[in-house]
Amino acid sequence: MATQRFTKHNAAIIQTGVALLKARNADALLVLLDGSTDWKRIAEIASEVEKPIIVAVDSPDDLEGASEAGLKALALNKEKAPLLERLQHALLEAAADEFIRTNGEIVAVYSGFHQGRLDSISHLQLDERMRRLTTRDLQMLESRVPLPTIKAVIDLAAQIGREGREGKPVGTLFVVGDTRKVLEHSNDSGVDPFRGYNRKSRNLLDAKVQDDAKEIAQLDGAFVVGSDAVIERSRQMLEVSHEDLTMTKGLGARHWAAAAISRKTKAISVVVSQSTGTVRLYQDGHLVMRIEPMDKAVTWQEFAFEPPSSNQAES
Ligand SMILES: Nc1ncnc2c1ncn2[C@@H]1O[C@H](COP(=O)(O)OP(=O)(O)OP(=O)(O)O)[C@@H](O)[C@H]1O
Predict the structure, then answer these.
(1) Which of 239, 247, 232, 230 is nearest to 285 (CA)?
(2) What residues in the chain have per-residue pLDDT under 70?
């Protein structure tokens, strides 16, 4: 369990965050921490404002007592991720949990320079960062698959695209939602390592299961994932006709299969290219999102700051 000492200094920074929250009449204060702290003291400092005070740490264990103190608690599961990624993820999680509006104004307090020492305050206009990501893209996808599931899969796919496995690039495919129909078009390509495991041990919201999936991603075939983020099957070869589909030149069988299954069913395909690490999302046979394999923090931001052109063609 990680802790972050509630020093006078940290208290003063949070106080300043609260003052900025008031001065700007912002919607919420986000305190990004490196571990558990004195939640009651944070609640006391913020007691003069009736706005959500969101506390985000990496592990759910470190949040014990936070909700009881009247704070909105978020577990990020992003221990080794760079600051910007954690911050961006916290904002997305806060929006997904409806602690904040996707076009709200947030004051964020965090350790920008030294771990364990709150030293930075940002005032963020969320519509600039998140409107496209949540309202247009993610909400469009959410009509098919719940936001936490699709975010977990996108995050995992982006990680696989960025890191590969043991220095080698890895490509893979997740077909999310409409499982029953998807399975009508798929066949085992080998022994499914997830077969026989209980649902909890196949749930992609769990960090350990994400690790297992990274390992299995190196093998042939696709993951078939339910709306609840549970892997129903892995190592599936999809058999769907891709007549009439249009795709960018240079994309191979995996991408065609991804687009085709998304047209044939209500599933969303999330595909990682082995050759480039790029993550592409297909819905109804069309490319709806593309994430380049640069630093993930930058990726989410670019993604939000630079919407793809309206015809969604690849460039
Ligand atoms: N129909 C399919 N269903 C599931 N997986 C598939 C299917 N077709 C190909 N794959 C997987 O994709 C892998 C790579 O195929 P290919 O190189 O043609 O894909 P690609 O779209 O060019 O992707 P990448 O950019 O990753 O190379 C195959 O080894 C296989 O594991």
Answers:
(1) 247
(2) 96, 102, 127-140, 142, 292-315
Among 85, 86, 97, residue whose Cα is nearest residue 35: 86
Contact residues of ligand 1, CB 6 A cut-off: 171, 173, 220-222, 237-238, 251-255, 257, 273-275
The two tokens of residue 224 are 């078939």
Tokens of 87: 């911050």
Which residue among 254, 278, 292 is best mutated to probe the pocket of ligand 1, counting the most ligand atoms within 8 A of its Cβ?
A: 254
Task: State the pLDDT at residue 79.
Answer: 75
- What domains, with CATH codes, occur in the chain? 8-126 (3.40.1380.20), 135-293 (3.40.1700.10)
The predicted structure's pLDDT at residue 295: 38
Looking at ligand 1, which residue's alpha carbon is closest to its atom 28?
Answer: 220
pLDDT at 302: 33
* pTM greater than 0.95: no
Residue nearest to atom 21 of ligand 1 (CA): 252
